[in-house]
Amino acid sequence: MNAEETNLKGCWILEPDVFEDERGYFYEGFNVEKFKKATGFDFDVKQINQSRSSKGVLRGLHFQTGDKAQAKLVSCIEGEVLDVAVDLINDSPTFGEYSLVRLSAHNKKHFYIPKGMAHGFLVLTEHAKLMYQVDALYSKEHDSGIIYNDADISIPWGMQDDQIILSEKDKNLPTLKESKIDF
Ligand SMILES: Cc1cn([C@H]2C[C@H](O)[C@@H](COP(=O)(O)OP(=O)(O)O[C@H]3O[C@@H](C)C(=O)[C@@H](O)[C@H]3O)O2)c(=O)[nH]c1=O
User: TM spans, by residue (predicted)?
Assistant: First the structure.
């Protein structure tokens, strides 16, 4: 497995070894020992999520607060997405900065986003299916977020706002300045 820390400390891009033969391919989506060896820390999976979305759908920027904060290991198993992490860790030197990676069923990259960062993605292909593992259970009460186009963060999504499809919840998220984040 190849592992590279991004511009945000604790946020990693992982590339599993892919074994191809005449039947197709095989790879390990997560291996607790290899993950620890590569990153130096544990990831204790508690829940595995899947979502499928159409082109232009943007989900995010989301995080859970307090003792329900989640680290996430994200991969794309159909199509391609632009996946983004935003550093919201209070005393971090990169607070408010983002890390971007294209995840696709083809490149099989995985994006590890630690607790304290927001996560979002934009679907670039007709459809995309995301699978992500998290280390804390879902809690509606702790579900929180910031708006995807916050001018202070300025993520280069590469798609016009009028082509982006958001949930009602995501349309009404606050900016980073407006939000009082409680990790
Ligand atoms: C996230 C989540 C949602 N749900 C339910 C709540 C709701 O009825 C429905 C859809 O929820 P949402 O609109 O919040 O789904 P979505 O916008 O896909 O939310 C996800 O976005 C990405 C970017 C993330 O990083 C995830 O952690 C999660 O926040 O699914 C669960 O039951 N368990 C979960 O873990």
Answer: none
CATH number at residue 68: 2.60.120.10
Which tokens hold the place of 16?
């599993």
| 95: three-class secondary structure by DSSP | coil
Q: What is the pTM of this model?
A: 0.97
Domain presence at residue 109: yes
Residue 91 lies in a domain: yes
Which residue's CA is minimally distant from atom 33 of ligand 1? 138
Cα–Cα distances in angstroms (integers) from residue 109 to residues 51, 137, 154, in the given order: 17, 24, 24
- Residue 27 known to be catalytic: no
Counting the structural domains of the chain, the total is 1
Active site residue 142: no
In a domain, 22, yes or no: no
- With beta carbons less than 8 A apart as the criterion, state whether 109 and 15 touch: yes
| 50 Cβ closer than 6 Å to some ligand 1 atom | no
Residue 2 CB less than 6 A away from ligand 1: no
Domain range for 111 is: 44-171
